[in-house]
Amino acid sequence: MTNKKNKIINVISNYNPESQKTSQLLIDKLKSKGFIIPTKYDKNAELNICIGGDGAFLRTVHRYQFTNIPFIGINTGHLGFFQEILPENINIFIDKYINGDYVVEEILLVKADICTKTSCFELFGVNEIVIKGIQSKVVHLEVFIDDNHLERFCGDGIIVSTPVGSTAYNFSSGGSIVYPSLKTLQLTPLSPISSKAYRSLPNSTIVPGDIIITIKPEYRYENSILIIVDGIEYRYDNITEINFTVPEKTISKLNFDKNMYWNNLKSKFL
């Protein structure tokens, strides 16, 4: 890594006092190794280091529009599933980075094409995209897999999660854990209702990534739909359908330990 010409690294921190302290310590150490740390985000950097918790990581990815500059996270938050470096291991991290002792992992995303009666919009998520009712209303949705009708859903909503997001809201809602490299999407129901009128699956469904998932709100509920992308809320009037796919766009993350995923699962969930 030392043979790179620019040696620019973006250090992005939230405003938590511990994060700010860790950020300054990291900046000082990186500068002592010859790296350039810009005061503002530099699109020509070779690495983004995000300091905080998982929320800070997700906000950074969205803020910089899913940049192709790789990410690594230093955890000063709670769970820290994305943030694999602990503050006390900064020296080890810097040495490994300089020596190229890591692999670059590709993180698959979820894309939603949201069509209204007049136009279409696209949104990208790292963890998940959720369809819910405004003001906690029950939603009524028609769900199609590859143009095949799957269910007439009634309940609080549906989560469409990525593999990396399978351990987030999806897991908390009873969904399955999916290994990050598998190209899939997962539909997980939120408080599904089954009756003579609505037949809702009670468990999650895992779908191959090359298949389109289509969700259509019932006509009288088209203006009661809330779209939540990685915790950020969006609302569109007169939604006719939402198509979910695994896009070509990805983000990259450095991995310094081949066993990190399984160690994370054990240490953070068991």
Provide an overview of this structure.
This protein folds into 2 domains: 9-107 and 250-269, 3-Layer(aba) Sandwich (Rossmann fold); 110-245, Tumour Suppressor Smad4, CATH 2.60.200. The chain contains 5 helices and 17 strands. It is of the alpha+beta class. The strands form 4 sheets. A 6-stranded antiparallel β-sheet has the order 6-5-16-13-8-9, with no helix packed on it. A 6-stranded antiparallel β-sheet has the order 12-11-10-7-14-15, with no helix packed on it. The chain has helices spanning 17-32, 54-63, 90-98, 169-172, 260-269, and strands at residues 9-13, 47-52, 71-75, 103-108, 110-116, 120-125, 128-133, 139-145, 148-155, 157-161, 184-190, 205-208, 213-217, 225-229, 232-234, 239-245, 250-255.
SSE order and pairing:
Layout: E1 9-13, H1 17-32, E2 47-52, H2 54-63, E3 71-75, H3 90-98, E4 103-108, E5 110-116, E6 120-125, E7 128-133, E8 139-145, E9 148-155, E10 157-161, H4 169-172, E11 184-190, E12 205-208, E13 213-217, E14 225-229, E15 232-234, E16 239-245, E17 250-255, H5 260-269
Parallel strand pairs: 1-2, 2-3
Antiparallel strand pairs: 4-17, 5-6, 5-16, 7-10, 7-14, 8-9, 8-13, 10-11, 11-12, 13-16, 14-15
